[in-house]
Structures are given as C-alpha cells and as structure tokens.
Amino acid sequence: MLKRTLILTLVLAALGTGLAACGADSTPVAAQAPQTANGVKVSVRDDLFEPGNVKVKEGQTVTFTNDGAVPHTVTGIGGATFDSGTLAPGKTFSFVAEGQGRITYVCTIHAGMKGTIEVD
Questions:
Q1: Which of 27, 50, 80, 97 has the fewest Cβ atoms surrounding its Cβ within 10 A?
Q2: Which class is 35-119 in CATH?
Q3: 46 pLDDT tier (thresholds 50, 70, 90)
C-alpha cells in the first residue's frame, strides 16, 4: 500500500509541475496571421480561410493565397466591395484595408467559407 501511495504521489506531483509550466492563463489565443512587410497573409484552403479572423491597421495590405487544390473567390460582403474573381490554386489576391471596422468576406464558390478582417 505504501508503494502505491508513493507512486500516486509522484505521478500527481509530476502532473502538477507540468500544468504549472503551461502558465496560469487558460484563455485561448487567436490565430495570428503571418505578417508581410506591410500587412498580413491569409491562406485559402479547400474548406476555410486560415486564419479566419485577422486584425490589420488601416492602409495595410491583406494578401490571400489559394493553397488549396480547387478554385476559390475572396469576395467582400455587407458593403465591402473587393472581389478576387476566380482564384486558381497557387494564385494570390491582395487589397488594401480602407476605413476602420469589420470587413466580412466569403468564397462565393463554397458555401460556409467565411472570414473577417478587423481594421483599426
């Protein structure tokens, strides 16, 4: 019984140390878009935009690259006027974020593909 108690104590101590090393804040961190010289990059995949939500400053460039195997679009909705047209695999589309607020965009070919850009 003493051996079992000792092993259990050691295992719990090791787990506690491992959890403490992870940090006290368990709030998930939003995905950060890769930075370019004057903006961010968004990967267009076959079922999503990655990251799906990005933050930029007014005047920064947002560059979308179709990293999927099929064509996509990057089309602003809700007052946003940009549209990539059909974006073949491997191709890119960029636009400059103007005005502060939230921009929502979709792929008009694939229902459910949606992303947002927060412009400060």
A1: 27
A2: mainly beta
A3: very high
